[in-house]
Amino acid sequence: MADKYKYWNPILEKLPEDQLRNLQLRKFKRIFRWAYDNSPFYHNLYRSTGIEPGDIKTLDDVKKVPKTEKSMLREAQGKEPYPYGEILSVPLSQVTEYRQTSGTTGQPVYHPETWQDWEWSAESWAYCLYAQGYTAEDRAFLPFVYSLFIAFWAAHYALEKIGCEVIPGGGMNTEARILKIRELRPTALLATPTYVLGMANTARNKLGIDPRELNIKKITVAGEPGAGIPGTRKRMEDAWGAKVYDQAGATEIGHWGYDCQEQCGMHVNEALHLVEIEDIDTGEIITSPGRKGKMIITTFDRYAHPCIRFDSKDIVEWSSRQCECGRTFRLLPGGVQGRADDITKVKGVLLAPTAIEEVVRDFVELSDEYEVSVTKVGDIDAIAIKVEILPGHESNLETIKMRLTEELRLKTNLRYDIECCSFGSLPRFEGKARRFKDLRNKEH
Amino acid sequence: MDYKVKEMAKQIAVIKKSAIKLKELSCGIQAVDKNTERILASVKMLEINISDLIKV
Question: I need a surface site. Which of A93, A311, A371, B35 has the fewest CB within 10 A?
Fold first, then answer.
């Protein structure tokens, strides 16, 4: 078995659970002490609740530490030491890289990296990529905008670290990227799920190229739920004839989760992070498998901008499965299943947008694109979905609508106003897609 | 497989000590200081991967 799977660090990745928890406790104490001593933001936060580094004696004590969230980081930034504010825990002169979040949920959060922290970012991605079979034999294509948003920047450096040949596919449109892939014959591709599907469509429909003929062997997706949604993963794998693997991370947190070659869920990199799952309603820490909650995460080894008990809003659950790969890092089935701030009540029913994607992407007659909008008609919520019918299936429109109505009702307990659009009429996205629009607040 | 964690950790400490000593000897030569800082960043990754198992 040892030869079948790849480990960036077999010692840590297969560490017996008692030793892993012990390591996590020691590392939590270390970063907590660091933040307390070096970040005025954290120092004041902890002083205000009366907790001190010496109070952490067991992993159970961790829950006494106040949580942080994105709004707190936003509020702290824009001040001295400019622009990071009092979270910054190293002298400004040690900062060598500026990064920021995508801004999907509001004002981007600024993120400073020292050279050491940036090495760490690449290191954490290396765990992921090596587990997915990347080696020095690979040539990887990164079709993203190399810009302020962190996106796949650290993946680029991790690929270099592993020894892969990296093709930085920025500064090109989708057609040019596909032609460059055909020209240079990379073996691997890294992008958002939306863009992986979008590239395949562009190759087929605008360039007349079957993506399967481009000989990409593996694809790593990040930035959105996608590989964790069976229908979406299948679409990507079918379109490219490649294995598709998931990765999870965020600018503030780093790269904390990855599929291995077994593709049976996302491993949490528990040597570099402490993940707690919190019940959304009660705040109780969930330790048993099968109960969904939001992820509270601590990053152990990043010092300039510590991330301690950060409320990521990602919806996850523990798996009861032990992965065949031999890693002792726990699994999250389906990876990130959605975001707590995306879950909304429609007609009194809790709805996660990823549930809609699971249904739509299982219909072979529909394209990859769809758009959901929630509005209010009088006092009553209304939910509508636009889907695209693939060419050749137009004559079955009424049957498709009936089946879609039924499948959506079964999955989400809601009845939708369905509009079938012609192929190519819905918006296409290059980065993170925004397919769910809640228009109720705007109307009132 | 038996990994030689303690021996590796010892060698990592030697590299770190050597890099710090090199920086002390540099008299501020930037070509030495800055490249040594990068070595030390890599040493930290070795510590995270190996040395932390025995000495956090």
Answer: A93
